[in-house]
Amino acid sequence: MTKKHIPFSFVVGDMPTYKTIVQLKAENPEIFKDIVPILGAFHQQMSYIYAIYKRFKESGMADTLVAAGVVVEGSVDQALRGKHYRRGVRCIQLWREALIQQRLTSILEHEELSDDIKKNLDILRNALTETQEAVWNAHSHLENDAEMQQLINRVYEKPGTDMGDFWVSFLEMSDPLVQSIDACHARNGSEYLSSTYDMLAGLMAYDNHDYARWLPDYW
After folding, report:
1. pTM greater than the 0.70 cutoff
2. pLDDT tens across 172-200, in order?
3. Contacting residues for 49 by C-beta, under 8 A, at least 6 apart
4. Cross-strand partners of 9
């Protein structure tokens, strides 16, 4: 840094590396004052996948994913524990998709979305063939649309039954994971910080105390 006149430097690591960097910086504040420790989002997300699995392990989710041919029986446990990252994310996102589809089908059974919302949703569905400006505008319109916000609130509304409330809580708990992944892809710093904050409760509740202890300092 001194040789190349770099004013500061980010050092990225998994949890053990991050802890070491933070401790070294605390012991040598003057030498390392321009070093900024960064916790890698990849390991953070893997750890949170495991917290989700602990919460929903006995729900039959793994059995359903195997029966649907999404993942083989020998891999489902490792995938949902976060050891196979891509498979784990795919399993959770497919499960979310199924639940959201079920909720939307029920909500929209006797009503219809406005033409404006349909148009913007179609643009997002065909994002690869649309211009970046069109996709951005569609996203902004949907984000600020009162009807869309009301629909989202209805999807997350607790049905008032044990089973219904339980599966809505899956949507709520998996939200920070999906938001964190999206934030990394979109390079959205504020969304990444908010998703990190929202992970804390799940990590603490399901015994991942290492992340639960260090994430608040990192955040």
Report:
1. yes
2. 999 999 999 999 988 888 999 999 999 99
3. 80, 81, 82, 85, 88, 89, 92, 177
4. 35
d(CA 28, CA 152): 49
Instruction: Supply φ then ψ for residue 83, to 5 degrees.
Output: -75, -35
DSSP string, 29-70: TTTTTTEEEEE-HHHHHHHHHHHHHHHHGGGTHHHHHHHTTS
Tokens of 196: 């990190």
C-alpha 129/C-alpha 132 separation (Å) is: 9
What letter would DSSP give residue 130?
S
For residue 187, the SS3 value is: coil
11 forms beta bridges with 37
Can you list the alpha helix ranges (DSSP code H) found in 57-161? 61-67, 73-80, 85-107, 115-125, 132-144, 146-155
Each residue of 114-169: pLDDT tens digit?
999 999 999 998 988 999 899 989 989 998 999 999 999 999 999 899 998 999 99
Q: What's the Cα-to-Cα distance from 146 to each of 18, 85, 101, 116, 143, rounded to whole Å?
A: 42, 35, 20, 12, 8
Dist. CA 211–CA 198, nearest whole Å: 13
Under 8 Å CB-to-CB from 205, ≥6 apart: which residues? Answer: 51, 55
Q: Which of 178, 173, 167, 182 is closest to 201 using CA atoms?
A: 173
